[in-house]
Design brief:
Blueprint lengths: L9 H8 L2 H10 L5 H28 L2 H21 L3 E2 L3 H25 L7 H32 L1 H9 L4 H23 L9 H8 L4 H34 L12 E2 L3
Antiparallel strand pairs: 1-2
Helix pairs in contact: 2-3, 4-5, 4-6, 5-6, 5-10, 6-8, 6-10, 7-8, 8-10, 9-10
């Protein structure tokens, strides 16, 4: 059977894993105290990726649209939970708000990419849908966590200023407008940084396709499409989570409700 890539067997995988000994050796030599953390992180990473590989192989083989949708929903739920876990404060229903923002934005941009740009047939082809959705989710969860955390922390830090504006007759949107803008700007920073790629940093998807035998020009086209999709998904998710938090933390009668915020315990 002809293949355009070099498969990695278990022996080669084991040989590659010995590279972590460099990190462990530095930790021991310099007394960094990272041996346990590195060991656990390595073990968890290997187990999780191998498990994901077997699950995706099963999903690909069945080629069932309902199963693909279930996997997409589980991935979105995990991303929504991970996004909130990175923030320093909480409020009621924050997890549902995070899930809704990430799920809606990711489903929208991934759907537009699959149906409108790539025109995949069938639309639920797991070979395309799951990896594309995974890349979008990975970036949106980072953006939403940064935007949400910045929004809540700024409300606490600028409480006196915001309440003064509200007392002078400003609406809740007028009082929080700058805070919303700063939160959205913060959430989009990783996307901007991600796009600064080229000769030095080759994106993961592009590198993977080239290693898989895809023409470099085609791989670049795919990567550009993915960048635009991730950018749109992150922007929509950040806007969604910040606006939902805004509705919770400002009452309809234009009062700042920081009593609804709770500091996360360490």
């Amino acid at each position: 059977m002809d293949q355009n890539y070099i498969p990695i067997d278990n022996i080669q995988l084991a040989l590659a894993s010995t590279l972590i000994l460099i990190n462990l050796g530095l930790s021991v030599t310099l007394q960094l105290g990272l041996v346990k953390s590195l060991g656990l992180a390595t073990l968890r990473m290997v187990v999780q990726l191998l498990l994901v590989g077997y699950i995706l192989g099963w999903v690909f083989a069945l080629d069932n649209p309902w199963l693909v949708l279930l996997v997409a929903l589980v991935m979105s739920a995990i991303a929504g939970n991970a996004s909130v876990s990175l923030t320093r404060r909480r409020f009621l229903h924050i997890y549902w708000h995070s899930l809704l923002s990430i799920l809606a934005s990711s489903a929208l941009v991934t759907g537009l990419l699959v149906e409108g740009v790539l025109r995949i047939d069938p639309w639920y082809d797991p070979q395309y849908v799951i990896p594309l959705l995974g890349m979008v989710l990975g970036n949106t969860l980072t953006g939403t966590s940064l935007a949400l955390d910045r929004f809540m922390e700024d409300l606490v830090g600028r409480r006196s200023q915001i309440e003064s504006l509200l007392a002078l007759g400003a609406t809740r949107w007028e009082a929080a407008h700058e805070t919303v803008k700063e939160a959205l700007r913060t959430g989009m920073i990783p996307t901007i940084s991600m796009m600064v790629v080229g000769l030095v940093s080759l994106p993961g998807m592009m590198t993977g396709q080239i290693l898989g035998g895809v023409n470099p020009t085609d791989a670049v086209r795919y990567q550009i499409v993915i960048f635009f999709t991730i950018s749109a998904g992150t922007a929509l998710a950040c806007m969604g989570i910040v606006l939902l938090a805004f509705v919770v933390l400002f009452s309809p009668d234009h009062q700042l409700r920081l009593d609804r915020l709770q500091k996360r315990e360490s």
